[in-house]
Records
---
Amino acid sequence: MATKINSGDSRTRSSVSIFIVVGLCCFFYILGAWQRSGFGKGDSIAVEMTKNGADCNILRNLNFETHHSGQAGVEDDSASKVFKPCHPRYTDYTPCQDQRRAMTFPRENMIYRERHCPPENEKLQCLIPAPKGYVTPFPWPKSRDYVPYANAPYKSLTVEKAIQNWIQYEGNVFRFPGGGTQFPQGADAYIDQLASVIPIENGTVRTALDTGCGVASWGAYLWKRNVIAMSFAPRDSHEAQVQFALERGVPAVIGVLGTIKMPYPSSAFDMAHCSRCLIPWGANDGMYMMEVDRVLRPGGYWVLSGPPINWKVNYKAWQRPKEELAEEQRKIEEVAKLLCWEKVSEKGEMAIWQKRVNSGSCRTQDNSQATFCKTADADDVWYKKMESCVTPYANSNEDVDNGGKLQPFPDRLYAVPPRIANGFVSGFSVDTYLEDNKIWKKHVNSYKRIIKIIDTGRYRNIMDMNAGLGGFAAALESPKLWVMNVVPTIANKHTLGVIYERGLIGIYHDWCEAFSTYPRTYDLIHANGLFRLYKDKCNFEDILLEMDRILRPEGAVILRDEVDVLVKVKKLIGGLRWDAKLMDHEDGPLVPEKILVAVKQYWVTGENNSTSSR
C-alpha cells in the first residue's frame, strides 16, 4: 500500500531549508562586507606585521584557509624540491651575458656582447649566493655617492678611471664623486650646460636614455631634477659598471647597441645621451642613429659629447688623426640631416640635435635618400635585427604633433596618454585606463597595510614583472624609489609605450629567459598575473630562480594571481630560502584572486652551505 505523504510536513521542511539558505547567504554577505571594511583578516595582518618590526614585515602565523571548492585551493603537503646554493664562482652570474659563452660569438658589430642565453640543459638549478659581508645598500640619496665595497668587490675601475674621477675606494666603501670623462667640473655642472638648451627643469623632459652609461652618474644626478634615465652598458672589460649603477640606486640594465633593436618602444624617450659611449654612430649607414631616432619622441633631444665633437681643437689630446675624426663627424651630420634632426647647439665638446615634431617639418630638407622601415609595428623589437631605415611618424598628417601633446611631469602621470586617447592600444579605452588607475591605487594601499615600509625608502629599486599600463608604479611614485616596468613579450606590448607617456620607464622581456641585470639588484619585486600568463609557456621553477637571483637578501616579493596558481608557486617557494605567506584579496575571501607575500632570507656564500655546480 502506498504511503500517503503529509503535505504539511513537506511545506515545513521546505520553509526550514529556505530559511537556512537565506541565513547562510546573509552570513557570507556580512562576512564579505566585514573584510572590505578593513576590520577583517587584512587589517589584523597589517597590525601584526607592524609589531613584527621593519626588517621582516611578514606574518609568521597566518593560517590561510581556502574559501573555494575543488582541489585548486588545497595545499600540497608533499615535500618541496630544495634548491642548494650555487658554487661561489657564480656570485655575479648573468646567464644571458655570460663572459665565457660570449667569447664563442663573433666580435663584429658587438654581437658577442648581446644576449646569448643558455639552452635548457645548461640552466642553473641552484641559488646564486651573495658575497661574504654583503649588506643592504645605503638609503637614497646617500647611495648615489657611496656603495659598500663588500657588495661589489671590484677595484679595477678605481685604477682604470682614476684620472676621470668615476669612482674612488675609501676604507670599506666606494665613493662616486660625480665625475666622468666629460664631467671635469662634475655631473651637476654638465647637466647645467644641458639645461641651458634643453627644458630639463620644467617637467617637459622626463624620460631619458643613456647609451654606454658607465656607472650612471648622469642618470644619478638627473634624479633631483625629476628626470628619470634608463641607462645601459655592456658587460665588458669595465667590470661591474651596471652593477655599480644599480647599487647606487640608479635604473640600469646590461645592454649594447650591436645588431639587435633596443628593448624599448618607439617614441619613448624625451632625451637620449651619449658621453664618450664609444658607439660608432656613423657606421653601418647610420643604423645606430636610426635606432635612437626610433625610440626618441618627436621633439626629443639627442646629446653627443666627446669625440668627434670639436675635433679641430682636441684631436691631439685624443691621440687620433684629424682626418679620421673629421670623417666621423661628417657621417654623423649626414645621418642627422637624413633624419631631419635640427642641430640646436654645439658648444665645446657637446652637440645637441632635436628631432622634428612631425614629417611636415622635413619638407625643406633633402631626405629623398631616406629608406623608410616597412615593419607594420615599430614596437615589435624583441630579438629583431636593426635595419638601416627610418621609422616613419605614427600619424601621416604632416601638420600634427606626432608625439601627442604630453603634460609636464608629474601631471602626465595620470593624464590620459595619447596612445590611449587615440585608440592605439587594443583592449583599452579612456574609461578602462581611468578604471585601471583606481584599481591600482586600491591595490597599492592594500600593499602598504601589509608591508608598512614599502614607500619609506627601504625599497629603492623596484620591479614590476608584468606592468600592464604602469598603474602599480604610478600609485607608488615617489622620489625615494623607482620602478622598472617590465612588459612581457607575450603580453600586450603596446602598453609599454603608454608607460613611457606617463613619465615612467620600462623594458620588454621574456620571463622564460634571464633578465639583463646582475644578481641582487632589486629590493622589491611585484608580479600581477605573471604565472597565469606563463602557465603553459615555461617552467615556474626557472622564473622563481631568476627572481631569487635578482632579488637582494631581505628583499620582498608581492605576487597577485589566481589561487590555484599561487598555491603551486608557494609549494615551489618552499624550496627557496624565502619566508612566504598566502593571504586573501583585499575584497575578502570570496575573491578567487589571492596575494602571496615573501621575504628572501639573508645568507651569504660560505656559511656552511652545501653547494651545487648547477
---
Amino acid sequence: MITVQDYYEPTQPTLLFSLHPEPAQAIEAGTKRIEYRRRFYHQEPFQAFVHVTGTHGGIGLFLQISQPLVAAPNRLLANLTATDATAIRNYLGNVSQAVALPIRTVIAIPRLTLADLRQVDPQFTAPRAYRFLDKPAQHPLRQFLLQQPGIKKP
C-alpha cells in the first residue's frame, strides 16, 4: 500500500493549513494549481496537509508546494483570465503584497475527521492560518498523517 510517507520529503518543512471545501475540491480535481493567500509561510518550498473546513471537513489532502511567490497582487495575477483575477482580487482585498503557492503535487488521502485526529492529539483544532508539524509536540500527529494511504492526483 502506498502511503503519504512515500511522497514525504524530510528536508522540507511540513505544515498543516485549512481551506474551504470549494478550493480543496478544485485542487484535488487538478483545476486549481495555485493557492493565493493574503499572507503565508513563503521562505522556501514546503509540503502541507490540508484541513477542509465545514461540517464534513477534516484532513484529506497532502500537497507539495514549489517556491512560494511574494509580490503585489496585480503582479501575481497578471497571467490569469479576467474572471479568475477578479475573484482572487476580491479575496486579497487591498493588501500590498500577497503570496502565491504553486502546487507541485497533490496526494488525496481518506478524509480524517476531527474525531479521528483527536484520537491522536486530544487537543487538536484546525489551524486558522497554518501550523508547523515539524515541532516535537506535533510529531505524533505528523507520523499518523504520514501513515495514511495516499493517491497521487494528476
---
Amino acid sequence: MFSNKLRGLYFIVGESQFLSHDFNNILSKSLDLGLNLLQYRFDSEDFFIEHEEKILNAIDKVKSYESINIVNNFYTLLDRFSFDGIHLGQSDIPLDLVKYISNDKIIGVSCYNNFNLAKDAVRYEIDYVSFGAYMQSLTKQNAKKMNKKELKKVSNFSLLPKTIIGGINLSNIDDCELKNFEMIAASKGIMECNDLDKLFMLAKK
C-alpha cells in the first residue's frame, strides 16, 4: 500500500521541535514539497497523551497528503493514534516478534552501521531499514559516525528500501554518498533549513 512512499526526505520530529511555533508551517511546507514520511520520535508515552489533540491534527494533515505517519518505539500507541507504521531500534523488541505487532503496518528498524542486521530484517519481513550515522548529530550525540568502508557497504544493500540518518542538512544532502539511499532522514536539517525548496529538490536527485 505504501511501498511507493518509501523514498525521499524522511522528517523526524522530536518533542521540542513538535512544540515549536514553527512546526506546523514547516510541516505544511514540507508536505507541499513532497514529504512522504513523518516520524514522531518522542521520549515518553505521557507526551503523546498530554499533546494528543495536536498530534492527531498533525496525523490528519499528513494523511490528507497520502503520506505516512510513523511512531518511534511505542507500538502500544499504534492503534490509538492510527499510525501507519512504527520504527524500532534493535533493543526495543526482538525482530522475530515484530510480525505480531500488526500485519498492515509499516515496520522499519535501525541497523546502525551493521550490514548483517539489515539482512536479518529481510528474513523477518521488515519493510525498511535505517543506517547511520552519516555525520555526527546534535539530535543523537551518542550515535557513532560510519567510516567510509561501512558507508560504502551499507549503501550497496538492495534487499529493502533503506534510509540514511545523521547530521544531514542543506550543506551535505547533495553528497554523492547519499545517492544510493531511497530515503534521507533529517530532523534539524529540516526544522532549521532556510531553503526548504532547495533541500527537497536536492533530495529528489
---
Amino acid sequence: YAAYTLEKDIVVFSEPAEKFKRVGLYVIISSSLPADVLSLTHRCVAGGADCIQLRAKDADDDSRFAMAVEFVQICKAADVLSIINDRADIAVAAGADGVHLGQNDLPIEQARKLQLAPLIFGKSTHSLEQLRAACKERPTYVSLGPVFATKIKPTAEVVGLDYVRERTEELADTGVGNVAIGGITLDNVGQVLSAGAAAIAVCSAVTEASDPTAACRALKEKIAAFKKE
C-alpha cells in the first residue's frame, strides 16, 4: 500500500505536474483539420499560451496521431505544455505532456498504466458529485464548468461563478489544480479569476478570433495583471 501511495504521489508531483501549477492560460483547439490545428497551435504559442489541448474528436486514429505528433513538437519547441483530449494512448505515443479525460473516458487509474513517463492528468467535472469522485482519482487538475454558456457544449448546464468560488475553496488543500472552463472571454475573465480559478481555459474566444495570437496575448495580460494584484 505504501508503495502504491508513493507511486500516486510521484505522479501528482512530477515535473510536468509541477509545471502545470504555473499555467494561467490554457487554450483548447477543437478541430480535426490538420492545417487548422497546426496553424492555431503556432498562433497560440506566439500569443503566450501556457498550455494547449488538442481536441480532435472527429479525426480517425491515424490522422489524430499524426496531428498529435506535430502538435507536440510545436509545443515542446516553445516550452508550452501539450495535452491530448480523451486518448491516453495517443498522448503517450506522441510524447505529449498530458491527457485530458472526460466523464466517460478511461479512468485515470487505468490511463496511468499506459504512461512511459509521468503525465499530467486532467479530468472534466460539471458538478460537486463529479468533482469529489474525480479527486479520488488524484488528477493533476480538474476542469470546473461550464462557467458560462458555451457553443462547444450547448446543452451543458451552466455552473456559474459561485460554484467556481466554492469548489476552488474546497480544492485548496488537496493538491489538485483547477481550471475554469466554458464561455470565458476577455470581458468576463476577471470575474472568473476573482472567483478563485487558478487557470483559465478558452476555446472559441481564441480559436474563432480574427487574430488568435492577439486574443491569447490580451487574455494572458489580464491573467498576469490579476496574479500580480
